[in-house]
Amino acid sequence: MRRSVPLALTVAIFALSGTLISPAQAEAGPCRPGQGPNLRGRDFTKGASLPYSLRCADLTKAKLNGVDLTQKDLTGAILRGAVLKQADLTQATLKYADLRGADLTEADLGQMHADHADLRGAIMVDAEAGQAEFPHADLTGVALTRAELTQVDFTNAKLIDADLNESTPGQIKARKADFTRAKLHEAKMGQANLRNATFKDADVSEAVFVQAELDGADFTGALVEGASFIQADDADLTGARGTPTGISLPVGPISPDTDRAQDESAQDDTAATPDTGRTGSGVPSVGLVMVVVSALGLAVTVVIWGISAQRRSRRGARLALLLRGAEEDVTRLGEEIDQLDYEFQVSGRGAVSGEQDWRHALDAYEAAKRALAVARREEELHSVAAAVQDGRNALGRLRVRSR
């Protein structure tokens, strides 16, 4: 006689199997800021152990001086007013974390991921933050004095009133970043991508912008005394104050009185010059004829060369414009991938890494970056556009299925 398992027992088994998940699976689940472990005011400097999961943990005013947080996932965590002096946050994830007023003096922030994080008023003096990522983060009023910021990503970040005096933000990515009223005295920003960044009323005196990309950057009211703009691309210092090196400030319009004085001087010079181009009989000399013919030939040559140069210049400018547009498209695709990854992690829709379209989007992103790196002609940018569109299509299919 066969025995059947009661329906109630079957339901209970399935219910238990759904709750017995690994710590890694639990960590990847959804959470809201503060929904994680309540660790407010706790002191972890005397050997106290941290919980396995710190996602969305409440660490308000916690003491974490010198604590090893390497590769820890602090997504959505609240660290407002926390003390993390000399803490090690190498490769840690603090996306959407709240670090307002946190003290990260001399902390190691190398390759830290802090997308969309709130760091208003944080103290990061002498911090080591090489290759850290702060895209779309709010760093208003942050203290980054003498911080090591090589290759940091500040894309679309707010650094209003930030103190970056004597810092080394070389080769940073700060497209569309806002440095309004920021202090950048002696900051080393060589080879930085500062396209469309804002430096209104900022202090960049004696800063170094050597070979930086400054297309569209706004320096209105900025103090540029002694700043170096040697080989900086498309630098426009209209409205800036002070005397920089490697570039001249735009000259204002010439006054009408000065213009009239120059015209009168030219007329006097013309009247005082004797007419020596004719012989006594009024017939032009042979030498004058030869000079005129030579001048005409030179003028024609110059005109032809000028037309050719203009065409080459237009082609170069068009290619540069297309390259910038393609680079922005690739960057936006990467940001869309990061955003969708975060949405899947915190919205309770499960992991996205196993999706075929997700892998397809990542492959398309890598293909677009490779194609952009080798593009030298307009037609070579078609493969970049195709890869970007392919990646966006894959992300679109993922979003449709997740609804």
TrEMBL record:
The keyword Transmembrane helix applies. Residues 241-280 are annotated as: Disordered. It comes from the Bacteria. Pfam families: Pentapeptide (PF00805). InterPro entries: 5peptide_repeat, Pentapeptide-BTB/POZ_domain. The chain crosses the membrane at residues 286-308. Keywords: Membrane, Signal, Transmembrane, Transmembrane helix. Residues 1-26 form the signal peptide. PANTHER family: BTB_POZ DOMAIN-CONTAINING PROTEIN KCTD9. This is Uncharacterized protein YjbI with pentapeptide repeats.
